[in-house]
Structures are given as structure tokens and as C-alpha cells.
Design goal:
Length: 252
């Protein structure tokens, strides 16, 4: 059956999960695919919106050129997300958080579905689509309230502290990750015994470095992805399957 882990490997992985003290998980868009969130890459395609490739619209250059277009793109995606729920992959990872002496869930996703499934202290490397931040000062604002009320605010929203335009609180191509977040993830990756890499194409820097860091310090690394990635040949086990089908089988 597709996505079914073969018995010897299943027993090996369950044993490793039972013995592990420090577990590090990196997720990407594929973990939310079974919830209905489109991935950026995969199946030989890349995401395009209104004829603009995602790596152009989700870039620092586009933000500088056309902030309203960037808001339109993220408003469109936020609207899609309103209808979607966490899937068995998110829920399995939320159950794991209390099973180890140390557990770190790090995600490249901005959709907030790990938290919606009950995961705490998720390291969000690329920010969160439900927040806005000022382009001038440190002010941040949640966009959840406006989605509950159904009436979007003005676009771009105006900062209540300094009057400048706000932007989505996400990390676009060509931008730096939030201060300290990658460093924290790298510290956790470097000290884990088990590292899971779930639903990421392992193409985007610097997140792609985290599994390499874990592997380089001796962790056992497991990739879960229906497709092969640049990390597949470097991990200990590459399980070719869907996250929502594979992760729940790893009950231990
Ligand atoms: C399933 C599944 C199922 C399907 N179950 N799996 C040249 C060389 C090296 C680096 C660079 C370079 N040129 C530029 C860079 C740097 C750039 C980069 O890495 N580019 C590469 C793509 C070439 N990185 C950056 O710019 C980063 N910042 C940075 O480096 O700062 C330093 C710097 C500063 C100034 C100038 C230059 C450098 C920032 C990266 C931010 C990424 N942001 C995005 C958009 C966020 C906002 C938004 O959502 O629009 O983040 S890009 C996009 O990719 C998004 C994702 O988080 C990220 C990673 O994608 P992910 O999660 O891996 O998803 P996919 O779609 O790629 O893959 C899905 C996978 O799931 C597939 O493999 C499927 O098979 C699988 N799948 N169904 C399990 N059911
Ligand atoms: Zn401000």
C-alpha cells in the first residue's frame, strides 16, 4: 500500500523513538498539503499567482515595488486558510511534544496549522501569515480579528504607533530570518538524537541547512516526502510517502 512503512523499518523507527531523548523536526509545505494548502514546488510544478511566479511575488523586491500586490497575494492565501484544518501529520507531531525530554518543532510554514493542532513553542522560520508588522518600527498586529469580523482593514494597514505602512510578517526571498530564530533551531538541531524532515523540498536556504547540522553532529535523520529531494541521499532513511499517512504509523 502506498505510504505503508515496511514492518522491519517500522519496528526500527519505533525503537529509536522510544529511546530518543532529544528530537528535532523540520517541516515544510508538504506537511500542510493534506489539509489543502498548496505547496510551492513538487510534482514538477511551481506555484504561480495571477501569472506571477511565487518567488517573484514573495520577494523583497516585490515588497519594495508593489506593497498592495503583496497584500493581495497574502489576503488571498489567508482567505483560503480560513477554511482549512490541521491534518493527522500536524496532530501526530502535537502528540509527540510531551513524549521526549526535549522536543523542538521547527517549521518553514507560515500557516499556523501546527499551533492549531496544539503544538506549543513552534519555531516559525519564515514568520506567520496571521500577523502584520510595521515597515518602520517594531509594531506588530494580529490579522485574526479582522478575519473573524469578515471585514478586511485598509490595505496596506497603517501602523498605530508611527503611521507608516504595515506588511505581512513573513520572510520573503532576499530577507533575513527573524533574529535568533535560526540560531535557536540550529542549536536544537545540533544536539538532537533523532531528526525528522517532513514535507520540504530542502531547497531553500538557510532552513535546508538544519538537517545537515543534525546529521553532522551524529543524529539519525529521517525524511518523509512522496518525492526525492537533495537531502534524500544524505539522510539515514527516506520514506517516500505522505506525511499524514506515514507519521501516524510511527505510534510508539
Ligand atoms: C509532501 C506532501 C505530503 C507534497 N506529505 N510531503 C542561490 C543559492 C543559495 C541560496 C540562494 C540563492 N539565491 C538566493 C538564495 C537565498 C534564498 C534561497 O534559498 N533561494 C533558493 C530557492 C535558491 N533564501 C532566502 O532568500 C532566505 N533568506 C536568506 O537567505 O537571507 C540571506 C540573504 C539576504 C539577502 C540576500 C540574499 C540572502 C529567505 C527565504 C524565505 C523563504 N520564503 C518563502 C516564502 C514565505 C512567504 C510565503 O509563503 O509566500 O518560504 S519561499 C517558500 O519556500 C516558503 C517556504 O517556506 C519555502 C520552503 O519551501 P518548502 O516548505 O520546502 O515547500 P516546497 O513547496 O518547496 O516543497 C514541498 C515538498 O512537500 C515537496 O518536496 C513535495 O514533494 C512535498 N510534499 N505533498 C509530505 N502529503
Ligand atoms: Zn510603526
Amino acid at each position: 500500500m502506498p505510504g505503508q512503512i515496511e514492518p522491519a523499518l517500522l519496528s526500527e523507527l519505533r525503537g529509536r523513538l522510544r529511546d530518543a531523548r532529544r528530537v528535532f523536526v523540520l517541516t515544510g509545505a508538504g506537511v500542510s498539503a493534506e489539509s489543502g494548502v498548496p505547496t510551492f514546488r513538487g510534482g514538477g510544478n511551481t506555484a504561480v499567482w495571477k501569472g506571477i511566479p511565487f518567488d517573484v511575488i514573495s520577494s523583497a523586491g516585490m515588497l519594495a515595488r508593489d506593497l498592495p500586490a503583496v497584500w493581495e497575494w497574502f489576503d488571498y492565501r489567508r482567505k483560503l486558510l480560513c477554511e482549512l484544518q490541521p491534518n493527522p501529520a500536524h496532530r501526530t507531531l502535537a502528540l509527540w511534544q510531551d513524549k521526549f525530554a526535549h522536543f523542538r518543532l521547527t517549521t518553514q510554514n507560515i500557516d499556523g496549522l501546527h499551533a492549531a493542532a496544539g503544538s506549543r513553542d513552534v519555531l516559525e522560520l519564515h514568520g506567520n501569515i496571521w500577523n502584520a508588522r510595521c515597515t518602520n518600527c517594531a509594531e506588530r498586529r494580529s490579522l485574526k480579528d479582522e478575519s473573524d469580523e469578515g471585514e478586511p482593514e485598509e490595505r496596506p494597514p497603517i501602523c498605530r504607533s508611527c503611521g507608516h505602512a504595515m506588511r505581512p510578517d513573513v520572510v520573503l526571498f532576499g530577507e533575513l530570518l527573524p533574529e535568533g530564530v535560526f540560531e535557536q533551531a540550529a542549536t536544537d538541531a545540533a544536539s538532537c538524537d533523532l531528526c525528522f524532515v517532513v514535507g520540504t523540498s530542502s531547497l531553500v536556504y538557510p532552513a535546508m541547512r538544519l538537517p545537515e547540522i543534525a546529521s553532522g553532529t551524529g543524529a539519525y535523520t529521517i525524511e518523509i516526502n512522496p518525492e526525492l529531494t537533495p537531502f534524500s541521499g544524505r539522510c539515514d532513511v527516506a520514506i517516500q510517502g505522505r506525511a499524514g499517512e506515514v507519521l501516524p504509523q510511527l505510534e510508539f
